[in-house]
Amino acid sequence: MPIYEFRCLDCNKKFSVLFRTQSMLQSRVCPECGCNNTERVISTFAYHRSGKDILEAFGEPTLSPRPDYYNDPRNIGRWTEKRFKQLGLDVPPEINRQIQSAREGELSVSENEMLGN
Fold first, then answer.
1. Residue of 88, 69, 93, 91 lying closest to 80 (CA atoms)
2. Dihedral-angle region of residue 90 (phi above 0 means left; psi in -120 to 50 means alpha; beta otherwise)
3. What is the reported pLDDT for 102?
């Protein structure tokens, strides 16, 4: 059951219609003004990247061995999560909290000292 988007040519309102049957394609009434003078428009869509796509885009150390790779705490977190997963272990809550803080750009004093900042 596809969802199509239309635009009313009278009031320029854009609207979506769920078509349960092929015969419903003929009735495209604007919900705003009640007019059937409509045209079908190309629908927008969302694309969500997977963790694998993100790693491929930013590169892992083996794929892109830049000297400053581990200066970014987000990369340290990625590597740590990957390593725990490879070992079949859950990331301990304290480590997970530190990884999340690093992703948000919030490092504690001791974490900054560990990174040499």
1. 91
2. beta
3. 77
> To 5 degrees, how large is the angle CA 30–CA 19–CA 4?
60
- Judge whether 53 and 81 are in contact, CB under 8 Å: no
∠ CA 21-23-26, nearest 5°, is 125
Q: Are 99 and 90 in contact (CB under 8 A)?
A: no
Question: What Rg value do the Cα atoms of the chain yield, rounded?
Answer: 25
Averages of pLDDT over runs of 10 residues in the chain (117 residues) are: 84 86 73 88 77 66 65 78 89 87 68 54
What distance in Å separates the CA atoms of residue 79 and residue 61, rounded to the nearest whole number? 9
